[in-house]
Batch of 4 targets.
Target 1
Amino acid sequence: MTALVLAQHDNAQLNPATLHAVTAAGQLGSDVHLLVAGHGCEAVAAAAARVQGVARVLHAEAPFLANPVAEDLAALIVGLAAAYEHLLAAATTTGKNVMPRVAALLDVAQVSDIVEVLGPDTFKRYIYAGNALATVRSLDAKRVLTVRTTTFPPAAAAGGQAPIVSAAVGAPVGLARFLGREVQRSERPELTSARIVVSGGRGMGSGENFKLIEALADVLGAAVGASRAAVDAGFVPNDYQVGQTGKVVAPELYIAVGISGAIQHLAGMKDSKVIVAINKDEEAPIFQVADFGLVGDLFKIVPELTESLRRAKAAA
Amino acid sequence: MRILVPVKRVVDYNVKIRVKADGSGVDTANVKMSMNPFDEIACEQAIRLKEAGHAEEIVAVSIGEAKCQETLRTALAMGADRGIHVEAPADVQPLAVAKMLRAIVGREQPGLVVMGKQAIDDDSNQTGQMLAALLGWAQATFISKLELADGRAVVAREVDEGLERIEVTLPAVLTVDLRLNEPRYASLPNIMKAKKKPIDVLTPGDLGVDPAPRLLYLKVEEPPRRQAGVKLGSVDELVTKLKQDAGVI
Ligand SMILES: Cc1cc2nc3c(=O)[nH]c(=O)nc-3n(C[C@H](O)[C@H](O)[C@H](O)COP(=O)(O)OP(=O)(O)OC[C@H]3O[C@@H](n4cnc5c(N)ncnc54)[C@H](O)[C@@H]3O)c2cc1C
Ligand SMILES: Nc1ncnc2c1ncn2[C@@H]1O[C@H](COP(=O)(O)O)[C@@H](O)[C@H]1O
């Protein structure tokens, strides 16, 4: 059996989410091939070849694949699919956009966002915003899967020596065109792979007040996240959102500040190792999942915590 | 142009669901059901497009048990013009839903399908992409901004890195994200009017689609529960706990 994993990248660097998908693919008992489709992405193909557990890298190169739209990426994957029993991608917005299109073109029912591999056709996945865990068996001969990155450790990014072969690229489908991307550049770690995440909610009151969250994050070397309410209120950009419909994170430490703990938020962070909640309402549901809680005004507690950590750091 | 809006009836997002003790699924008896929140946003967007003169008619579609007609009435009360109910088992899966929608697109010839990005019960996030594939149409998923002009849609998509802008040729399938708009509440007169709007009832057989599942849900269980921890008295106590007990900082 062989599995094809869609490598995600920006033509310069391999997105680490890919490494988690490679691990899931390895657990299927298959050989793992990585598909690197892009333009001027030789460095990514080379990085893909070094990933441990990868037996072959397929390199598809064309100008129209520089920022591929789902129509083109799906057509490419479907063209390669005959040789594979499993087709996978990390459940990022790219994976979620492309893989169902692949599945439908192959007449396969996709299993979304798997959190465990029980066998080549049987998987676990969450339903109802993480409030139920389902064991699902696919009856199709081929399986199309997206992988929740937080529950599979990353494959080692070095040590492999897979051959790179070029993959034939057809003509663009021509139905959609990439226009541009507004990327939030930040010096902080990336939200989904950070070791520590500090998130703010509606309780922050304003975008300006998120400075308190950022100061705390910086002293911890943490990423910054947010509840949907904070994003909707315009305090922070959409890509900060943690939850059922945002990003799923599972850091070693998650600090929720001024977040009530709605199930839709918990769906995105309750697999964190240690959870801290800071909230003035002692009945807030976030305390039901928090290991450590501080009840009180965040505008007093957060600066105090930042200062205390700064002092501890200086003393160490 | 006609716009098709698929709407799913789901357990209301405020309900704390219960997993059945025998592992066969989630208890949906006597719980509040609503239109999938993303589908309300899709419906709202279709109505705004009609109000802006981009569309003449909005057709809402729901696939599932008889009670889906209540969900269709909600869409009609918001402003959809008519409904199509495909009477089918409650748990038709995304691929079969997409095939039924394809057949309905064949009958209705819409210029746009606007739908939710994700159903909050199965959390699949598949159906729109599958429908676009089956139709050979363009897809614009997770959109938070939409402009129509000259047979094209220019959209902003919510992606992990931030926002992406793409242009798609119509007809197309759009799947909506939460920030596209804020759905209206139906007014009482509109709720009354909706009762008179037509709903056609079809079967999967009428559409030539086998609704049988291709994914077997072997077991549904409670996820591991987190234990509530301790409330601490001071910031210093927290720092000590994080350092010494948890060892995470
Ligand atoms: C379909 C759907 C999908 C959704 N997806 C997501 C998702 O992915 N992620 C997500 O987060 N939400 C999601 N939501 C929204 C979710 O239901 C909640 O509305 C949201 O999480 C609430 O955000 P919040 O906790 O910041 O705000 P609130 O619930 O308003 O809580 C604010 C908290 O701040 C506390 N507070 C206020 N002031 C202070 C102060 N000075 N000091 C200390 N504490 C203070 C309050 O006590 C309160 O607990 C979704 C909803 C729907 C319908
Ligand atoms: N049974 C259904 N009836 C009508 N629309 C549906 C149904 N199932 C899914 N959809 C549509 O497909 C979207 C995505 O659902 P899913 O792929 O299941 O997450 C929903 O937001 C609806 O717009």
Target 2
Amino acid sequence: MATHAATNRNDTLDRIMRDYEAVAARLPDAAVPREARGHAKCELSRLGWPKNSDEAWRYTNLRAFERVPVFQPAVLSRLKGAAVAAGDDAPAAMQLPALLPGFERLLYVDGERRGATATDAAVDGPRWPAEQRLGLLCDMFASDVAALRIRGTAAIEVLFVTSGFAAGAACYPRLQIELEPGSELTLVERHLGAPDAPTLVCANVAIELGRGARLTHYRLQQCGAQTAFSDTLAAQVGADASYNVRQVAIGAACARTSAQVRLSGAAAALSWQAIAVGRAQQVHDTSLKVEHLAAGTRTEEVFRGIADERARIAFSGHIHIASSAPGSDARQSLRGLIEGAGAEIDLRPRLEINTDEVKAQHGATTGALDENLMFYLLARGIERTTARALLKWAFLGDVLRAIDLPDVRRAAEHGAAGQLPDIMAIGALT
Amino acid sequence: MSSAADTAASALLEIRDLHVKVGGQEVLRGISLTVRAGELHAIMGPNGSGKSTLAHVLAGRPGYEIVSGTASFEGRDLFALPPEQRARAGLFLGFQYPVEIPGVNNAYLLKAALNAARRERGLAELDAFEFLSVVRAKIKLMQIDESFLSRGVNEGFSGGEKKRNEILQMLVLEPRLALLDETDSGLDIDALKLVANGINSLRAAERAIVLVTHYQRMLDYVIPDFVHVLARGRIARSGDRTLALELEKRGYDWISEQAA
């Protein structure tokens, strides 16, 4: 193993290990048990830093992650630590979104909780496979955790803000959600902040839904232009439980989502609807693996990506239906819209079926705006730029309309429109 | 009837010896037609005769090669204008197959289209309240539920609803020249009467309508001033509404044979 690890080491991994050794003694066990940190360190060392030659990392802009100067959490960094320790008023100076009516807000600045709201005790996180190995970084370095055990019905917003104090270092948001049987949670997870130097935001999300539980999970990623954003998620969905994800990826220089959802109980259901909008040289790369492990499980996967200018958007959707999952139903609809001459979209649907009696369908299309739709609008006298904007808006419409909470939908729409300036001009926003 | 040679000042549309290719094939082979304000022309013909091509070329759809000939609209060279400018100048194309655009609602499209046309005419744009008062009366005429305004353009509409929506758009935009491409196709008799009512309500001295149709039945409800029969890319015969009745009895073969 030592030989294997040595061959995978490179400068970035060396820096990660050095940074870890420098702060390991000060990292709180309450956020991540010490053994779990040690395991993550060994595992990352064994797996090595990812390479673009690996299929699972082919589209990630790894250089954005390698440019991060310091992997230590900003709150422990020697350079920034003092400022952050005194920086309780930092979030007040930032423009935080208005409170969502009926929601409890948990605020985390640079990965650490602000305010008095207590969360539950952290649990051991998932063991990350190679394609989710950036999750190991968060296991190693996280200094806090939002651990929530839900009984009954709840509505919670978790706001992860990266402040200017974190510029040049790293933040490790960490979210652990457990829904007890029959409980219901509406969760808004939002990542904000725009530090003025290459900064790592490396989030881990672990979710467990008990029998009959229901989680609607809104995810808005609006990090700054110099942020390398990693989002590693593992969800386990029990019998008759449903997990509904609405994800909007807008910000960051490079955003990588590595998600794995296991439908482990009979009739468990996943609805994953996501959009990514990229411009300039942004990269949005999502890898979603769904495992159907029990009978009658269902997946609905919808992705819409728009790549403008020289942006690159990738979505890999792998659905595996095990022999133990007869009667499963899996649908994938992946669509990409290329707007920029230097833009690129790579959609990779994959259905792997190991049992009979399943319903499965998938479709992936990438292209430019539909000329028939364009002509229809032009023939009504609509300006060409307005028509283009309207059609781009319509392209994202399936997913945006699936955001049931008006305040969240408005935030998502305005975020997406901010990436597509001509949309702001047409006044089509709700 | 109108003729290409007769270029009265009131001519809205003047087509001269128009030749058009699609995919290398010549589909229109010398069309000449004059349409004056106040007139309603029906263009009939068998499948593949070039009826829809003519409507779409005039509206500016890409993909057609204009080999030779001219078309002017109120004296302006139509082919020099992009499609959106033709529309804003007052030319309306009613689509045979209206597209669905989920995510763009009908009210937004109608208001944007109407205000674009009003700007072109030097009129003030309508605000939301004024727009609604304009559109409500037209919706009632077309027997469309008001909730449709907040739905996506043609999203989930039946064939008949889509055609009614086309006519509604026409009523709201009040074009100078309406080209209606087989608006009657796929309509049951009730929907056909509704659509015909809509068209008739728009007939006016300052406006012209060109109705492209395969069947005579629409012309029982919308009485044309002129009927032209296209065959093999040319106007093979022109006449008044009795020509349509003759076609109903005899079919198109005899005209196609003559055109050949």
Target 3
Amino acid sequence: MFTDLLGEHFVHTALIAGAVVAIVAGTIGVFVVMRGLSFAVHAISELGFTGATGALVLGLDPVLGMICGSVAVGAVLGVLSLRGRERDSAIGAVLAFGLGLGVLFLSLYQGYATTATNLLFGSIVGVDDAQLLGLAIVAVIVLGAVVVLWRPLYFSGVDPEVARSRRVPVGALTVAVFLLVALTTAEAIQVVGVLLVLTLVITPAAAAQRLTVRPGLTLALSIGIALVSTEGGILLSLAKAWPTSFFISSISFAFYLAARVTSYARERA
Amino acid sequence: MSIVAVEQLALRFGERELWHDLSFELAAGEFLAVLGPNGAGKTSLLRILLGQLEPTGGRVVLDRDRVGYVPQQRVFDRDLPLRGRDLVRFGLDGHRWGVARLSGEGRRRVDDVIAAVGASALADKPIGVLSGGEQQRLRVAQALVSDPHLLLADEPLLSLDLGYQQVIVQLLDKRRREAGTPVVFVTHDVNPILHVVDRVLYLGPDGWAIGSIDEVLTSETLSTLYGTEIDVLRVRGRVVVVGTPDAEHVHHVH
């Protein structure tokens, strides 16, 4: 049964889509964790849900609606570029309102309830070739931007005052980070769903950061953990018919725990 | 030839005016100490020079390319994925686009400047686990590695023990003597830098004064700047200011 499934086209598509999303999420996660934007990621993904349900009501493509919702919120948060507690409370307020709208849209939408479930919890095995192409295009955009912006993005993330004095456009880069996070979130939703985006965008980077302080190695480990979690999760869900998102989040959480134990042991040594 | 020209600068936050008609020039190689009580606008002056704060009036003229800046101490998160040497390296190429390996020449410059602040043993540790003084030394290295035309330092000696205070002061002094880089040094305590300071800019509640230490740090001048009786004493080669309302200058116990 398991080996039969491995020959199926939809399984190949799922594995490729999973790899694409894992690479993007593992990369952006490094900047999200560095800048303390976990809560913003959560908000952006939930408003992606609002965008998707809104699109369903209007009879449009939910993936497109999701991208629009995420990017709109990401742009607003980036432009406001609030700090600390003010940012957290503003995000909380926007997030709650957005979810309220999402519930309304969902009740207005007369289609299948599974669409909503898929948005919330992911449906990687349902990815078709067209969707995979969309994932790949967004991935190229995000990764290309990270390559071009890498040094100033890192500099302004960890040391904004001095970066500003070196005439790094710190404000514009903040907006850029939020837009990249929004695009990444819209990618990750398609694999693990709105509610589990953090398992790919936060957990691998947070684990990597526990294991090394070298910027390049942090990135490599974060991508590696995201990849193993995603591909491992997809394969396990073929062997055992439990939700893919459960397996993905379990594996990435196991990495996180292992990383914390390792760093704790290292500090004590 | 002046590197920095400050012309009739005024700064006001709402109703509160910090200073007006502030004018001075900085020549190549000059070491300027900026003194004054908390809230006198010392950091604001640096931010105006950096172009990060708009003055209420007047203007500053300087080339903002390659300004070495040592900001006021800020604590880094313990788990920030950043080593001491990464922080220093940002001073060299952090503002450039793209991904690149540091060249051999670049790596040598980073290593040299880290060695100069006595931080070679700290360079590969996470920045967040270093003490405030250790981070501060790397900050100075970061400012120096950029081969700056102008150095702006905001309380760079904070959290440093006396030995490292002198290491940092001598490094800045050497830089301005050898490369002609003027230094603007904001501090609450002039004593560690008495022997290198050319001029002092004192920002007081009732005005400002600029000149040599002997001209500015006198009972008469400071009494005028504070609008109250101030005594400036010279004790064993140290300057002690007595009578300032917030007692800023009466020596801090660290």
Target 4
Amino acid sequence: MAISIQNLRRYGKPVLFLMLSFPALWLGHEWYYAYQGLESSLGWNPVEAFHRITGDWAIRILLLSLAVSPLAKIMKSPKPIVFRRMIGLFAFFYVFLHLGGYIWLDKAFIWPDIWQDVVKRKYITVGVTALLLFIPLALTSTNSWIKRLGARNWQRLHKSVYVIGILTSAHFIMMRKGFQLEPLVYAGILGFLFLLRSKAVMNKLRR
Amino acid sequence: MLIKKRNSWDESENAVTSENVYLNRRKFLSAAGLSIGSAAVGLSAVSNAQSERALKELAFKKTDFGQDEKLTAEAAITNYNNYYEFGTSKSEPAKNAWRLKTTPWNVKVDGLVEKTRDYSFEDLIDMNALEERIYRFRCVEAWSMVVPWIGIPLASIIKKLNPLGSAKYVRFETLADSDQMPGIRWPVLDWPYVEGLRMDEAMNPLTLMVVGLYGKEIPNQNGAPMRLITPWKYGYKSIKSIARITFTEEQPVSSWTKSAPNEYGFYSNVNPEVSHPRWSQASERKIGNFGRMPTQKFNGYGEMVADMYAGMDLRVNH
């Protein structure tokens, strides 16, 4: 029943790659239709839909990446770690699409307006901060960077993904008008992942 | 083991299922639920038949308003809605609003008025006086539409109700019934939805009580059976499915003002010069277009409304 790490690398990773690519491919396909004025699943405001869908997938995949290490601990197996880097980079990819959609589709590269948004609108300030913190993690995701920094420093640096998680969750909550449930569900999942970092909770789960 | 782990990703993939399929599935489920439920009490399929209300054609006279505007597609107007009582996404109201029972419809009229009582829809709306007005509609989220509304001036209703001279404001309330409105089970806002106008705004000839659009009765998701339209204000002022009208001396506190006073003021006039903490109001995206266009002060209706705010600092009174 057990699948070797080699096989996870060889077959599991390409499968996961396809799965995580799927939302972006689907979105590109629907956008192509929407832009031509044809019927698409993006509804009547495709720009808004693009923000929403890329944002949803960015936070989902980010939370998934945060779940990998706790899962490995619970399973008492290093196998899930095989996928961690790819999941993290996909989270960054969707954040990048989210930002690109905002700069290009929404704001049409009008930089003064974008700058005004970043400084004036708090949820955008928070979102941009999360994005900026994410860049060094994406850049140092390679094996050679792990070597260059040393495993301990690298790990310390990459713990900041939890800060990114908090900022992302805050960005989502702040973005919604009124008191809405959906972003709180994501915040709850993030809170649960934080709980898993506590040794006491983890020991109970591993038993 | 591996298969188990994949299950969680499979679930994420499901969420990309096209919106239509997803929503139809839910509609199907609720319809199925209804028929099972009604079968259980021996009512057969009657309640299913009510799920989609047929919208009657209305008799109305045309007006000059917005004759040079290009109308937003009817399907966009009736499928892209903010009506949080039926869900917080844009597509949910069109899927859920069939639950709203619009006949008979009663409006409670109270406060500083000659006679406190309930009025029926028919008491308030003179169906022989309906007119069509094509207005621009500007949402605070920086999108806009052009809508052929059908209704009567609110002023004609207020005259009928005889408010007292001491009445300075009109307060409106949307119906709040969790049996009909699944969205109010969660406190997105302090239900019922409340909005208000100063008396001169309410009496302004532009202010319309709307009962139809695109030549027919107004669909539930757009605020049936009667809703307000104040085209020079952001869309949230144009309260839907009005169940109560109260004349007051004090300025009413709207649901949005209560939720975030720094974001939503009492006046909420469309104004590209007054920055908003969430969305730049300098430009807007007209539904159906991809680019943005500049937003006009008072949504372009300044000639008819600007006098009412003479001498007021519109930044403070936003």
